[in-house]
């Protein structure tokens, strides 16, 4: 007989769940729809606090946030983007090249705030709990902070756009990052005139969302999921199924 612990599976209220899923499904990467309105400090702090509550390997919290509103810094970043984007565009030919060049892939100057999220790869000392085998778990942790930020911003009505078409070495130099601090994300933040219903890349015909069913495997790669109502029930816990509806 397995020992039972308490049951906290009630979860959130229907309204709370709806709010969370709404933030997830209505979050967008924003480039073209920024309004110039400034962002109140208190709201930015709420969004950054959400980022700071992300999970991190060994509770390392390797992130820092550089809030950028200086037009000179943003202008320099925009210049870096323009050069890198021209290099990226050269990889496409024909219709794909035309479509690539027509797409707006950043809102560095149109958004009122830019934010660089960094990873201090030395924070927590040389042996961070849980990072022994996979050294990049610090970078994964920073990405989770960015996702928290992205969702919290959406709930606050603030759009976020991730600009990765930048040379990280050049960006680190421009922002004066110490050698052990890696720039993970350069983000554009601001209120928007619209959150698109679908990703802009989908709207412009670049790529569709892949159906979830085609991405699911059961127990090992390539084996289809079984049909059935329940998954993962322990044989000793059959009774638990009766009291729960999925
Ligand atoms: C790591 C990462 C880097 C990205 N870099 C860029 C970028 O440089 N320019 C851009 O326009 N969008 C960028 N995006 C946004 C994606 O294009 C976008 O998330 C995707 O098309 C899905 O759209 P959605 O975020 O609106 O759902 C990036 C997203 C991620 C997660």
Defining traits:
single chain, 246 residues, alpha+beta, NADH Oxidase, binds flavin mononucleotide
Provide structural commentary.
It is built from 8 helices and 4 strands. The chain has a 4-stranded antiparallel sheet with strand order 1-2-4-3, sandwiched between helices. The protein has one domain (28-201, 208-226): NADH Oxidase, CATH 3.40.109.10. The protein is globular. With 246 residues, it is of the alpha+beta class.
Please describe the topology of this protein:
Layout: H1 14-26, H2 41-52, E1 63-68, H3 71-89, H4 94-102, E2 113-120, H5 137-155, E3 158-163, H6 168-174, E4 181-191, H7 200-203, H8 238-242
Antiparallel strand pairs: 1-2, 2-4, 3-4
Helix pairs in contact: 1-5, 2-5
This protein binds flavin mononucleotide (FMN).
Describe the structure in brief.
Helix content is 36%, strand content 13%.
Question: Biggest sheet: strands side by side, in what order?
Answer: 1-2-4-3
- CATH architecture assignment: 3-Layer(aba) Sandwich
Supply the number of structural domains: 1
Here the CATH topology equals NADH Oxidase
Bound ions, cofactors and other small molecules, one mention each? flavin mononucleotide
Strand content: 5-15%
Which quaternary structure do these chains form?
single chain
Number of strands: 4
